[in-house]
TrEMBL record:
Residues 316-402 form the Alpha galactosidase A C-terminal domain. This is Alpha-galactosidase. Its main location: other. Residues 1-22 form the signal peptide. The keyword 4Fe-4S does not apply. GO terms for molecular function: alpha-galactosidase activity. Keywords: Disulfide bond, Glycoprotein, Glycosidase, Hydrolase, Lipid metabolism, Lysosome, Signal. Belongs to the glycosyl hydrolase 27 family. It comes from Scleropages formosus (Asian bonytongue). GO terms for cellular component: extracellular region; lysosome; membrane. The keyword Hydrolase applies.
Length: 434
């Protein structure tokens, strides 16, 4: 009796307690959606040789046009983001950062106005250290001035990189000072950090502090256009989930880096895996691809409303890997309304499609299908799988390196059981609750 009472109190405390304090700038209630130039366009500054693909105002104007006219905006993609290599090699006479005059002849304010006129927001890039990763002027010693400059231009998001810090022990202070500087401008500026990524080389980052000052934070290496890059990010995330998942919630999110769908390196199945798992991980959906010329299948996946709804779910809980069985991985994310999103990845890279049996034994969340659940498959194709019973077995077919993404809705929502699941889910004990 006493044990039961204690358990009830613990549950109430854990379930009702909000996630650690988030950066209080009213932004990132759900992960940001938009486009970021780095993975696809990198530091291409040669506008003579490649006028359409160099880092210039034209590139962002054209992406903004595409985002506004090809359904991206309606799907929720909002930020058009500049990465490294936009500035002049030196600051102006007043010490301000300035855009390269040849590549940005109109200047940043005009570019921000253009992006805003399309109903979108502009993101920019800077670095906490003395130089950016590509060697352009860094913000070290200029946090207040740079924040003010970005606000004056009408910038809406800052990606703040972590290269070239004189001493790594200054990283936390630098990131915190820029957060305060942005707040002091009075303009709402989304703050995307790489603070933990650079600290991991020396120490385990303090995620409570990071969440308090950043809206997104990169933890792990840069994404590139390859399946091994996507799996590397997933493996790292699963290995560190006990530490990083509790840090995510409305106001601040783990950032596993850009979506590379629509480029060259991922098969369609692998693109589905990236999209599904970025939804499970409550990741920012920042595409890095060429929206002026994108494969229709990639476009449809990126604009899939059911996947986006999982990513943007208002409950704001990041999912986690809950099982590894027979070269399949199961990842689950609790959703609002007592629903669950379930991703089943086929990690076997040989052979053909394989069947994953959904049973009590194989799928941790199946315990909630008591007496039954309604199951909808979202990927690889939309399919109502109907009512499934606790003791029934249904097979889902998954291609090599592909993912089946399901939404599972328990027919009777036992609120106590659901709360319990959320609680145990947080501590990665979802398997042991019944
Ligand atoms: C780092 C970041 C990348 C990108 C480059 C730009 O590597 O992690 O996302 O911004 O710098 O130089």
């Amino acid at each position: 009796m006493a044990a039961l009472a204690l358990e009830t109190v613990m549950l109430a405390v854990c379930v009702l307690a909000p996630a650690a304090r988030a950066l209080d700038n009213g932004l990132a209630l759900t992960p940001a959606m938009g486009w970021l130039h780095w993975e696809r366009f990198m530091c291409n500054t040669d506008c003579n040789a490649e006028p359409d693909n160099c880092i210039s105002e034209n590139l962002y104007m054209q992406m903004a046009d595409a985002m506004a006219k090809d359904g991206w905006k309606e799907a929720g993609y909002e930020y058009v983001c500049i990465d490294d290599c936009w500035p002049s090699a030196s600051r102006d006479a007043q010490g301000r950062l300035q855009a390269d005059p040849k590549r940005f002849p109109g200047g940043m304010k005009k570019l921000a106005d253009y992006v805003h006129s399309r109903g979108l927001k502009l993101g920019i890039y800077a670095d906490v250290g003395t130089k950016t990763c590509a060697g352009y002027p860094g913000s070290f010693g200029y946090y207040d001035l740079d924040a003010k400059t970005f606000a004056d231009w009408g910038v809406d998001l800052l990606k703040f990189d972590g290269c070239n810090m004189p001493k790594w022990t200054l990283l936390a202070e630098g990131y915190i000072n820029m957060s305060k500087a942005l707040n002091n401008t009075g303009r709402s500026i989304f703050y995307s950090c790489e603070w933990p990524l650079y600290e991991w080389q020396y120490t385990q980052p303090n995620y409570t502090a990071i969440r308090q000052y950043c809206n997104h934070w990169r933890n792990y290496a840069d994404v590139y256009d390859a399946w091994t890059s996507v799996t590397g990010i997933l493996d790292w995330t699963a290995e560190h989930q006990d530490l990083i998942v509790p840090a995510a919630g409305p106001g601040g999110w783990n950032d596993p880096d850009m979506l590379v769908l629509g480029n060259f390196g991922l098969s369609l199945d692998q693109q589905m895996t990236q999209m599904a798992l970025w939804a499970i991980m409550a990741a920012p959906l920042l595409m890095s691809n060429d929206l002026r010329n994108i494969d229709p299948k990639s476009k449809a996946l990126l604009q899939n409303r059911d996947v986006i709804a999982i990513n943007q779910d208002p409950l704001g809980k990041q999912g986690r890997r809950t099982a590894k069985v027979n070269n399949f991985e199961v990842w689950e994310r609790p959703l609002s309304g007592g629903k669950l999103a379930v991703a089943i990845i086929n990690r076997q890279e040989i052979g053909g499609p394989r069947f994953f049996p959904i049973t009590l034994a194989m799928l941790p969340s199946w315990k909630f299908c008591n007496p039954e659940c309604n199951v909808t498959q979202i990927l690889p194709s939309y399919q109502e799988m109907g009512i499934q019973k606790l003791l029934s077995t249904t097979n889902v077919q998954v291609n090599p390196t592909g993912t089946a993404l399901l939404v599972v809705t328990p027919s009777t929502l036992d609120p106590r059981l659901h709360e319990k699941w959320l609680y145990f889910h947080r501590d990665n004990k979802a398997n042991s609750i019944l």
